[in-house]
């Protein structure tokens, strides 16, 4: 229906980007394909085709499919149709854009848009495997448009960028390249790796790491890519490859995936598996916090702010150093379990995990750090779950009048239970 609507207006319609790549990959692997995100591009036959063609087509389609929700993104002249759990489409997201090229007024800025043809539209994309189009309109419906060798790269399992300046224009493409490489088990083609290294060495990360009113969109895209990576099963390999390429500097110039951080990330995973089986925490976000927590204290909150993390994450990273000092200083004075509980229960689970991770790796030279981790582990596994042997109802039955003294009695009972005096 979309192609008929486009054809009626004298336009070409193309399926582009990830859906074409995944169709070709699925063909080869004869695997199941579930595409939930479709990118369509409308291209006029004439130079006069205006930038609003995609929006017009989306509106026409919404008339045909009233169940779809229509969203129009003015600045880029794109529209989206969303089917949410529709009986016909399950859930589906269709983006419709007008063929466009982008020019960058300065590197790492927001792309600006002008009307152009499908070839130029594909040329502005990130990698050859994402820059193919399948024509949906007649004549030659079903034809694959592959101007840059995407199919060959798919066969060769290579991630190849389209042009030398690509990573300077948009450093988040480094993260995208790594994501696709690790996800599909592809290699980043050697010349593309060189372009990445060149972009990093030329300081492209300055624009991703500095608070800069001109680049909030860049920070948003970087965060989106980090989310994609850190919530995928392959997140560790992706971080490793980002580190090999020097690209963790896009988060902060001093960030390195060193032995200590690797160890901390392993501890984090153990904690998440053990203490957050219900997944009440946002795991990708805690992983990102763990990376940021590895930075020197003075950078943490700033980096979290730049990446637009939620307020509680920013506060946690801001307070981590102080909370850690408080715990490491007070813990040696805690002789009884109830005192440990008293100290640790002021912190929530993510903060306790960060504090545990934060204690130095070297166990032999710093016995205090290993004691701290053991105590936190013990607190989370056992002490935090201990309940006083009586509750409020029991006190009532025993004849105590409800009131503020209940809290005190229950606390005393808990202390006695924890310290093994009763129970
Ligand atoms: P996924 O399956 O992970 O969603 P995708 O290729 O569909 O992969 P999207 O982020 O949905 O990824 O992007 C859709 C298409 O838009 C890409 O295939 C690519 O052609 C283009 N694209 C997205 N981000 C960029 C970018 N930063 N630079 C250039 N092209 C991009």
TrEMBL record:
Residue spans crossing the bilayer: none
Taxonomy, superkingdom: Bacteria
Family in the record: Belongs to the tRNA nucleotidyltransferase/poly(A) polymerase family.
Name of the protein this chain belongs to: Poly(A) polymerase
Source species: Nostoc minutum NIES-26
UniProt lineage: Bacteria, Bacillati, Cyanobacteriota, Cyanophyceae, Nostocales
Whole sequence portion shown: 476 to 898 of 913
């Amino acid at each position: 229906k979309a192609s008929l609507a486009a054809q009626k207006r004298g336009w070409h319609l193309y399926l582009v980007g990830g859906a074409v790549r995944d169709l070709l990959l699925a063909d080869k692997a004869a695997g199941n394909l579930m595409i939930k995100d479709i990118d369509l591009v409308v291209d006029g036959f004439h130079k006069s085709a205006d930038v609003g063609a995609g929006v017009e087509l989306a509106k026409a389609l919404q008339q045909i499919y009233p169940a779809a929700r229509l969203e129009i993104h003015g600045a880029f002249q794109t529209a989206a149709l969303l089917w949410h759990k529709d009986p016909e489409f399950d859930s589906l997201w269709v983006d419709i854009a007008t063929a466009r090229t982008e020019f960058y007024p300065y590197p790492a800025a927001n792309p600006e848009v002008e009307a152009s043809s499908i070839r130029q539209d594909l040329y502005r994309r990130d990698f050859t495997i994402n820059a193919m189009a399948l024509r949906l309109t007649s004549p030659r419906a079903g034809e694959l448009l592959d101007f840059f060798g995407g199919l060959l790269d798919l066969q060769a399992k290579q991630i190849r960028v389209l042009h030398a300046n690509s990573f300077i224009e948009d450093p988040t493409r480094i993260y995208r390249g790594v994501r696709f490489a690790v996800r599909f088990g592809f290699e980043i083609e050697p010349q593309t790796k060189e372009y990445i290294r060149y972009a990093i060495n030329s300081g492209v990360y300055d624009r991703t790491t500095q608070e800069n009113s001109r680049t909030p969109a860049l920070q948003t895209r970087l965060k989106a890519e980090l989310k994609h990576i850190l919530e995928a099963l392959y997140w560790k390999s992706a971080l490793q490859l980002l580190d090999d390429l020097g690209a963790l500097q896009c988060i902060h110039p001093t960030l390195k995936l060193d032995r200590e951080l690797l160890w901390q990330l392993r501890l984090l995973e153990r904690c998440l598996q053990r203490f957050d089986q219900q997944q009440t925490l946002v795991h990708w976000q805690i992983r990102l916090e763990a990376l940021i927590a590895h930075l020197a204290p003075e950078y943490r909150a700033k980096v979290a702010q730049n990446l637009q993390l939620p307020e509680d994450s920013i506060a946690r990273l801001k307070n981590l150093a102080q909370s850690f000092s408080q715990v490491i200083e007070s813990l040696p004075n805690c002789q009884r379990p109830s005192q440990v509980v008293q100290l640790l229960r002021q912190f929530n689970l993510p903060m306790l995990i960060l504090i545990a991770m934060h204690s130095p790796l070297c166990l032999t030279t710093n016995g205090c750090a290993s004691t701290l981790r053991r105590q936190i582990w013990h607190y989370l596994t056992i002490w935090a779950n201990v309940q006083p042997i009586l509750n409020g109802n029991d006190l009532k039955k025993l004849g105590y009048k409800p009131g503020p003294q209940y809290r005190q009695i229950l606390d005393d009972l808990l202390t006695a239970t924890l310290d093994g005096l009763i129970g």
